[in-house]
Specification:
By secondary structure, the chain is α+β, with helices and mostly antiparallel strands. It has 3 domains: 234 residues, no CATH class; 82 residues, Alpha-Beta Plaits; 175 residues, no CATH class. It is 21% helix and 34% strand. It has 14 helices and 32 strands. The strands form 9 sheets. It has a 7-stranded antiparallel sheet with strand order 1-2-19-18-15-4-5. Strands 14-13-6-3-16-17 form a 6-stranded antiparallel sheet, with no helix packed on it. A 4-stranded antiparallel sheet has the order 8-11-7-12, with helices on one face. Helix 1 packs parallel to helix 7. The structure holds zinc ion (ZN) (2 copies). The site of one zinc ion has 9 residues, from helix 10 and helix 13.
């Protein structure tokens, strides 16, 4: 470790002693706070374990719910085994829709909408209101859920992808044997471990990437306290009770190049923190943690993944979150918007969110010059009047609902947009891409929709950021299918398309059927919220993290919610 890394590691050291957290609190779906008012986030390390082995370079204090405390010596392995257990009683429901922030007020309307479609929908209120140091932090949301899964016909008609979750009815129980230096203790439900002087604890053979090709086991090291608790199956969960800046420091290197400019790293730290807090209390309702450590919530590998520069970004933005109209902003982001971001409701087919409108990813003279997605047809060019950083000022289309407007975007010089200008984006196919699909490729993609050789393939409707709202394919017999939303369209093909922002060039045979198509596209990822390459481009043009966030989240401002 070099001296800069050592300095940051010391600065980020865990606060004095983590309060003991009972099993009922771990299952309470609420934020926890340490003595300084800094949020402690319970994060899954792993669960469904029967034997866990840990160690630390410093002595470990072991605490039980019965009030026992003992000290385990440095370096010696500490083993916890499950002796007996009882699974939690839980009920499965299917999430039809999640209403967050300013969309939450529509919950009764949305429930009634689903009821009118014959689905017995209910409202499940999640999240909470937290008062911290005189400030109020509100991350309440409403889940529209159904106890029985909608029929395939209902799912198709409403473009639904119901997500099954479990609600807790009765907490689980476990009895474990803690084998430490002085012998073994039988402990019920939860044991909490913390190394002396903020030292980290290594957990052996952490199972990771379950369900992915890279599934495996590796030793991982965690700062803060660890809780070993009954999981929903009555086996052992390992949970890291981690201060929020330490969690963000562990998450950042998986999200953005640690060598990116500091302003971009700080913007990413604030959005990553926002994404964690947006999820708190709304997921894992039958688990003894608020967020997991996999793609489902955010990839978190503990101290093992940290980098001094991303640690610095996490620490310097500690307690900072993005708000609009008193609501936490859903700070979604993607790799590269290709020159224009997309309103969230186009990408996910959900009610509009006022902070997530689309805009050209280019210098604007007047921040009021944003796309008004309520009034179609405001197609035009916007010319920045200001001398704004080193980017050359170029006319950038501000509404890309038509094919000619998307053509204009594709023809822009790279340096016209922030993500095109990013020095981290000069290689690869994140900014501009082409993909040729042969008759065979198309046949494979549309066979499961029952189509033969295609006569036409078109995008009849786009969002203001140019991403398709639907793709229509018609075969030579006149049969036609419509695929809605960008992600299902991208996944029609293997490998999946880089983005849903593209134009289609068609090559036809003499009989009028399609021989091949060439897609000419822009961007990588969904394109809503912050453009990560654009954030780097903005930082390189001299903008700070607050300007970057204001650019991508319309009207949103950074506020210091926790800590100094
Ligand atoms: Zn998760
Ligand atoms: Zn961009």
């Amino acid at each position: 470790m070099n001296s800069a890394a050592l300095f940051v590691a010391l600065a980020l050291a865990a606060p004095a002693e983590t309060p003991f957290v009972e099993l009922s609190t771990l299952y309470g779906n609420r934020l926890l706070f340490d003595a300084q008012g800094i949020p402690l986030i319970p994060v899954r390390v792993m669960d469904q374990q029967t034997r866990v082995q840990l160690s630390s370079p410093a002595p470990i204090t072991v605490r039980t719910g019965a009030g026992q405390t003992f000290t385990h010596p440095a370096h010696a392995p500490l083993v916890v085994e499950r002796a007996a257990g009882k699974a939690a009683a839980r009920q499965q429901v299917f999430i039809l829709e999640t209403l967050e922030g300013d969309t939450r007020k529509d919950r009764a309307k949305r429930r009634d909408f689903f009821k009118a479609q014959g689905i017995a929908a209910e409202i499940l209120n999640v999240g909470g209101v937290y008062g911290v140091g005189g400030k109020v932090f509100d991350n309440r949301a409403a889940l529209i859920v159904a106890k029985t899964r909608p029929t395939p016909a209902q799912e198709k008609a409403l473009s639904l992808r119901p997500v099954p979750i479990e609600r807790l009815e009765q907490p689980p129980a476990v009895t474990m044997l803690v084998r430490h230096a002085a012998g073994a203790e039988s402990v019920r439900d939860v044991v909490q471990l913390e190394a002396a002087a903020g030292a980290a604890i290594t957990v052996r053979r952490v199972e990771h990437s379950i369900g992915y090709p890279q599934h495996g086991f590796e030793d991982r090291t965690f700062r803060g306290a660890l809780s070993l608790a009954a999981d929903r199956t009555g086996q052992l969960a390992v949970v890291n009770l981690v201060p929020e800046d330490v969690l963000v420091a562990g998450v950042l290197p998986s999200e953005l190049f640690a060598t990116a400019p500091m302003a971009a790293l700080k913007a990413q730290a604030i959005t990553a923190r926002g994404e964690v807090f947006a999820k708190v209390g709304k997921r894992h309702l039958a688990d003894p943690y608020l967020v997991c450590s996999a793609q489902h919530c955010q990839v978190y590998k503990g101290q093992s993944a940290e980098h001094p520069r991303s640690n610095e970004a996490a620490q310097q933005t500690r307690g900072q979150l993005l708000f609009k109209d008193g609501q936490l902003v859903d700070s979604v982001y993607s790799a590269c918007c290709g020159g224009h971001t997309e309103p969230s409701h186009i990408v996910w087919d959900q009610p509009p969110k006022s902070a997530l409108t689309g805009r050209a990813d280019a210098p604007f003279a007047d921040p009021a010059q944003r796309i008004d997605h309520q009034s179609p047809g405001n197609i035009g060019l916007f010319m920045d009047q200001a001398a704004h950083g080193p980017l050359p000022v170029q006319p950038v289309p501000i509404d890309l609902r038509t094919d000619p407007a998307v053509e204009q975007l594709l023809a822009l010089p790279r340096e016209a947009t922030y993500c095109g200008a990013s020095t981290f984006n000069q290689k690869g196919d994140a900014y501009r891409w082409t993909r040729r699909l042969t008759r065979q490729d198309l046949a494979r993609a549309f066979a499961r929709h029952g189509l033969g050789p295609l006569l036409s393939l078109s995008i009849p409707e786009r969002g203001p950021g140019g991403r398709l709202r639907m793709l229509v394919a018609t075969d030579v017999t006149g049969k036609s299918v419509t695929i809605r939303r960008e992600l299902p369209v991208r996944r029609l093909f293997s490998p999946a398309l880089r983005s849903g922002l593209f134009v289609i060039d068609t090559e036809k045979a003499n009989d009028g059927s399609i021989l091949a198509v060439t897609l000419r596209g822009a961007g990588f990822g969904h394109g809503s919220g912050m453009c990560q390459q654009g954030a780097i481009g903005m930082a390189e043009a001299g903008h700070d993290e607050r300007e970057i966030l204001r650019h991508y989240y319309a009207g949103a401002e950074v506020q210091q919610v926790f800590g100094p």
